[in-house]
Amino acid sequence: MLRRPKCRIFALLTGCVLALVWVVLRPALLRAPVHVLHEAAAWAEAAKYRGVRYHKQTHVFEALLQVRDGPGYIGQFSTAKEAAQAYDREVRRTYPDATPDHKFRLKNLLNLPSEEEAAYHETPEEARRRAMKIWGANHRKEARSFELLKEALNASPYSEKYELVRLTGSSKADALFKLHGSSQAGLPIQLKAATSRCREGRAYHFSNLRGYDGMLVVLVALDGGHFWAAAGEELKSESMGITIGCDSDTHRRVENIVSHLVGCFKNTRRFRHVSVEEAECDCSPSHRVEAAVHRQLKALFRSMSWSLTCPHEHQTTVDSLLQVGIGGPVLCLQEKSSHFLEREGRYTVNLSKSGGSLGRRAYAQNDFDLLVACVLLEGRLQGVFLIPISELVQTGFVANRPRKLTLYPPWSPPKMNSTKQKYAWQHNWFLDLRTWRGSGGLPDELKGRVERLTAKEESKIPEKRPAPEDAAAADVAAKQPRLAAPAAKKPAAPKAEAKEKKLTKEEMEAKVLEYMRQQNRPYNSQNVFDNLHGAVPKATVQTIMDTLCVAGKLVLKEYGKIKVYLAAQTAPTAGGDEELAAAVEQASAQRKEIQGQVDEVRKSLSQLESKHAAAREAKAAADEVAKLEAKASSLRAASGEERVDEREVLAVEDSLKKAAGAWRKRKRLCVDALKTLGEGIGAKLQQLFERYGVDTDEDCGQVMPAEFS
């Protein structure tokens, strides 16, 4: 009974403590879930819009537009929708109507676009132009960085002693720094270019920096004139950012880039020198073939005192620039090469360029001046087709659709007569180089041939490239390199003269009939229209062919709904049969006569070969006899002319065989015993030899003869 008041007092104190704890912690416990739910809802609301984020500390929404030439930070707002509206206003201000691709930018950046802006659809052709503009800009940056580096070299006192050579686009290095006019190796240089990423012009970003061990990597700021340099093995990351005034800038900044290049050129321990040929071969296997062909073409034109160089801008439709003579015109070349394809039995090259998402595209009329199609045998130049682009346009291989051009050098003609006639124009532009050894001067006959071909090409090359009038043409023009000696402008011809003269009905009929007789193979009207390249309208072609069928000049064959036409074959007359029979008889007589001469030559050749074979065998037998006589003489001298009994020889051989058998048996027993012991204790055979002091035959220099082993 006395314990009850104490229990009640203890329970009362416990209740008071719990109540005090509840009063103190209640506000925080009730407020924490609400606060977490409020932040989660704010983040979810900000995630609905582009360029909007929730700031946790200040509990406000921020708007940011981080694009090139954009404002970056816009401001703070109480709601996410207000921040999104401010973001949209900055997008429209940054990309007005005059901005290229502004409709595409507005559709992809706006949070609340209008119906017209949201309904915009980009065509594949527009997407390709936009991608090509970005892709071409990267290569123009690289070309501009090379120009800046070369300008710095020309302005320095080292310009008379050193030179900077531009390499092909397929090589890993971009340029080679070497002694001026020397054929020795030089310092390989990899160029990386960038423009500033903010309005202040202080931040630069460079990418693709790994994999250039042994080279000097030069980073160029195109809009600031700054140079940074580092050895390729020092760059461990794929990309790097540089901010002017920070450690990333001062650590690798080079104030005098030319002096730094000279110092690296002399430091051969750190930077390995390579020749132009080695640098151009440092690429993929397919590009090595292109580099080898380019070197052979360079040697070919050098023998003519012409200059073949690489353009400053790579990955365009121009592979090289050819300057004809000293101070002469400069031709833009597209280089192609082909080995003999055993499966197809011919040489072929592809006449197409990359079209991005649109696949392969045909070359345009102003993409280059001259096609240089090389024919190879085991990597060596056998011949070259020097075809101007005007000829390719006329034959339908350019400005039409992606095509594959089959090459027919004189030693590999087509089998069908129609194919021979179709590709006969190629021989007007072919140069046979089988007699040229790849070095030294060209023979006078080949030199004259090259000069005549070049004279033809220059007469067919337009003196002025057409000015781009739309975005697609501007894209192509942006890819054209600057020529060292551009041709003079030609006054524009009147439109009436530029237009082709329209053919009359009789001329069209004669053209179709001539083509059908020339090809002498079945065609339908669509084939004839395509092969005439639109010279005769499609409906007119069908009418003309029906008319010629009625006149008996063409023969019509119907296969269901398909009409096939063939040139009428003239029946031979009786007089023609007699002439043909006489010609066949004469040819048979000539064949028999020639066959008799061939048999006589073969018979005499066989007799001569048998005589030579007998002489060779007699000489070989005499040599063998002399060799055996010499051996017998040495053996007689060693034995002192003493005769040995045959039984003694057999006894010695028998004892030798027994000794070799005992040797072999004891060796096998010893090795087997040691192997068994090694398996038990887990030791190798060589370790057991060393442990027990066993000397092998090899250790003693005594190896069993092969006939007894």
Compile the SSE list and pairings.
Layout: H1 4-46, E1 52-55, E2 60-65, E3 72-77, H2 80-94, H3 102-109, H4 115-118, H5 124-154, E4 162-166, E5 175-179, E6 187-194, E7 203-207, E8 216-221, E9 227-231, E10 239-243, H6 247-250, H7 257-266, H8 276-281, H9 285-302, E11 307-309, E12 320-323, E13 330-338, E14 347-351, E15 353-354, E16 360-361, E17 370-377, E18 380-388, H10 389-394, E19 403-407, H11 417-422, E20 430-432, H12 444-460, H13 471-478, H14 495-498, H15 505-519, H16 525-531, H17 538-550, E21 554-559, E22 562-567, H18 574-639, H19 646-681, H20 685-692, H21 697-700
Parallel strand pairs: 6-8, 13-17
Antiparallel strand pairs: 1-2, 2-3, 4-5, 5-6, 7-10, 8-9, 11-12, 12-13, 14-19, 15-16, 17-18, 18-20, 21-22
Low-confidence stretches: 30-36, 462-499
Number of domains: 6
* Basic shape: extended
From the 3D coordinates, which CATH architecture of the largest domain would you assign? 3-Layer(aba) Sandwich
Helix fraction by DSSP (H/I, runs of at least 4): 40-55%
Query: CATH-wise, what's the superfamily of the largest domain?
Result: MepB-like
Biggest sheet, spatial arrangement of strands: 11-12-13-17-18-20
Question: Strand tally, please?
Answer: 22
Largest sheet: 6 strands, mixed
Straight-line distance between termini = 115 Å
Mean pLDDT: 80
CATH class call of the largest domain: Alpha Beta
The CATH topology name of the largest domain reads Trna Endonuclease, Chain: A, domain 1
- Pairing-aware structural class of the strands and helices? alpha+beta
Cα radius of gyration in angstroms: 44 Å
